[in-house]
Design brief:
This protein is α/β, with parallel strands linked by helices. The chain is 43% helix and 15% strand. A hairpin with a 2-residue loop joins strand 6 and strand 7.
Amino acid sequence: MLFSNLKLNNNESIYIQIKNHISSMIDKGLISNNSKLPSTRELSQLLNVSRNSVVLAYEELKSEGIIYSISGKGTFATSQNTVLNIPWNINWDTLENDYSKIANNMDIVKSEIPWRSDLISFKSISPNGELFDMEELKKSFLNRISIEGHKILNYGYAKGYKPLIDYLLEYMNTKGVDTSNKDILITNGFTEGLDLLLSSFVNKGDYIICENPTHNTAIKIFKALGLNIIGININKDGIDFNSLENTLSSLKNKKNVKVKFSYITPSYHNPTGIVMSPENRYRFYNLMKKYNIAIIEDGFNEELLYSSSHIFPMCSLDNLSNGVIYIGSFSKILFPGLRIGWILCDKNIIYKLESVKRCKTIHVSFLDQGILYDYLSNGGFEKYVKKIRKFYGDKFNFAYKCINKYIPNEYILGDGGLHIFIKLKNINSRLLLSKCHEKGVIFMPGDVFYIDNNGYDTLRLGFSRLSFDDIKKGIKIIGETIKELAVEI
């Protein structure tokens, strides 16, 4: 390709034309320093000229220090290109769009205190990897490769790996969901699912209703897409339904206000850990139905329901309708590194989302989907869930008792799961975090979960990856520090 634009003529010696062409290419930086050139035989055949002409050209270039040869290895360029060494600096700050600015400004990985091995960190609500059944996962990997062969390493389908889709449809059936008019799209976890859905159905300036506080990543996506967020406060009794009904009533007759969606996490809500009662699920569903506002249900950590019998997801109330879109994921309990989630909703919606998915990322890794399907379908998942329910249940109960004993608070929220939410008595959690950090303890300040700059006196404690000793030690340090701050105030 380097010589495709070399057109030889009869007005000048062949070797001079070859020499000048190579010299020009090197000077422009199109042949970089130390790049290997074709052998004289190869180049003569390529240009259909005498090999002697190429030899003469190379000799001239060597004498001028433009190329050099190494015995047994070949001939190489010596580039002294000056154009490429001239700095070229684009001011990317001026080109950055609002989406990037919001994503960067709200990136808690960059803005919050980072994890260190010498800290007792209550920040994470990720699963404890020590509980993963690695032997079963290895078997699933080998089994899928054996069954699918090279096919599973090639391009897949935007909707997802069909055996996994079929498994998840049946899985949702066990939760009381009639999937006869529903379908599933596999996503790269919850985050892509929510972004994919909203990118397909909202416009900048549309409105969305959500709990306040709510999932920080959801807030980030809402704001990055330019949505107006209507927050419904959560207090010690859960979501404030009186406020919700008043808000819906007041918005009904407002011009230029289009509420496209409501976003809700009924089970182990992040960050409060509250599990919404069956009665309140009915109440919320019927309110959204009354005002014709589609529901996005975050199926967060439903599998960890160890404090009571199974509570149906909200989408099970919508069986023959199309008003609820369920986004599921196992990421907070199982193999988050696989980044696999799913959207369950009306078939017509999935049909549209499939094309958007294909436009954005084509498909989720078929190998990862195949491995997960094999693991889920061989019975290992049921055993794993039974094990982690007890493991995390014991940790939750222990942490809850420690908080009650050591941390002065206005109230504690949490029905289980992997975290507990605390409202303090007029103590700034940011100041508390700074003081605790000095003592080797960090946590997630609650304000990152609020849409309206509230929550300055709240915090979330994640305990999934901590030992019982560290849970107790860390909570005691937080409690002692709160008492110190209370004296100062």
